[in-house]
Amino acid sequence: MQLNSYTSFDGHRRLASGPLQSVAIGVKRLLEGGTDGPVLIFDDGTGRSIDIDTRGTDEEVLARLPVPVPAPVVEQQRGRGRPKLGVVAREVTLLPRHWDWLATQPGGASVTLRKLVEEARRQHGGKDAARRAQERAYHFMSAMAGDMPGFEEASRALFANESEKLGQLIAGWPGDVREHLARLASIDSSDSVGQ
Length: 195
Hints:
This protein is of the alpha+beta class and 195 residues long.
C-alpha cells in the first residue's frame, strides 16, 4: 500500500485514487456539482477516513490539507549517539531485571536493543504486515460496509485469514467496495520488513 495514497468514494462508488491533493480537488468538484451519497476520503495506508474542508478556491482547499509529518531531523552537533546513522534518542522504560540483563550484554543496552528489534522485525515481519493489512481493511469496511449483510461474519473471516470465505461473504456488496477492500487487505512490498 502506498503511504501517500488516498481513495475517495461517493456512496459506494469509487471516485479517485492517488495523492491527497488530486483526490481532494476531485471531491471538491463533485460536491460543487451535487451528489446523493456521502462522500468519503480514505487514507490507503491506514484504511481510516479523513475529513477535509472543501470550501473556497482550489488553492485554499490545498492549503488546508494535512501536512505529512517529516522524519525526525538529526542535529549536526550532538555529543552522544550516532547522528550520521540517523539514531534518535527516546526514553525506554524497563524493569530492573531487564536493565540488569542489558548491562551484561556486549555493546551495551543500545546495541542489544537494536539487535533485538532487528531480529524481531526479521522473524515477525510477515505477521506484522498481515496485521497491518487486516487493520486497514477493517477500518475501511467498518466505514463503508458496517451496515451491509454479512459484515460481522466478513470481519471474522478477515481476521481469521479466511480469504475464500471473506470473498463469498462480500460477494453481494457493491463492486467498488469489494475491490478496494481486497486491495487494502493485500500485503504488498510497502508492508515489507525493510520499510
